[in-house]
Amino acid sequence: MRRKCTDSLIYWKKNPGRKPLILQGLRQTGKTWLLMDFGNKQYEHTLYINLETDRSAADYLSVPHDPQEVLLFLETCAGKPLRPASSLLILDNIQCIPQISTLLTSIALDFPQYHIASIYKGVVNSDSFSVHDFDILTLYPLDFEEFLWANAEFALTREIRNHFSDFSPMGKKLHEKALSQFRLYLIIGGMPAAIMEYKSRPPA
């Protein structure tokens, strides 16, 4: 499922001034899937740790440790090599650890060469997660264009963009098809799970 936010993730990866990433947003918008898909396509190794379900990792990170010791622990916990540039470390549900911002800031200060992304359910507190210390992205439900991509309506997407760009009217049949897809989008909504459920339905 193509998401526009992927372009921002690729920019983050290539940015030499990269800071620890926080992907925030409502539940069920596809944050975990997006980062895992990004990691699998852009990195040699993707290390994933869920701080909501992995209590041993959550308990360890709740206590101050040396940044290098933390990286070694996370590498062992994930069971994959954590290497600069070729590995992506994903920490899911960082809202479960109030002190995590201080820890991530310390790691970034001592080891800026590591690529660390995290997932926050909801909207981060700007007092704890400053934009000076973190790169913060927000993932929303799919917009109409992403909905069309998910339904393989690539030609229709291009036509809508072209007509919008030059302010020209669409032909009747094309306009009817666009309206039909938009009505479908209004009914299904932009949550990835609902869209995938619709796509998996048997033909009428």
Brief write-up:
By secondary structure, the chain is α/β, with parallel strands linked by helices.
- Catalogue the unreliable spans: none
β-strand amount: 5-15%
- The quaternary organization reads as single chain
Give the overall average pLDDT: 95
List keywords for this structure.
single chain, 204 residues, alpha/beta, 5-stranded parallel beta sheet, elongated
List the helices and strands and how they pair.
Elements: H1 5-14, E1 21-25, H2 31-42, E2 45-50, H3 55-61, H4 67-78, E3 87-92, H5 100-110, E4 115-121, E5 135-138, H6 144-150, H7 154-166, H8 172-188, H9 192-199
Helix pairs in contact: 1-2, 4-5
Explain what the structure shows.
This protein has 204 residues and is an alpha/beta fold. It has nine helices and five strands, in the order H-E-H-E-H-H-E-H-E-E-H-H-H-H. A five-stranded parallel sheet has the order 2-3-4-1-5, sandwiched between helices. Helix 1 crosses helix 2 (31-42) and helix 4 packs across helix 5. The longest helix has 17 residues, at 172-188. The chain is elongated, with a radius of gyration of 20 Å. The model has no long low-confidence stretch (mean pLDDT 95).
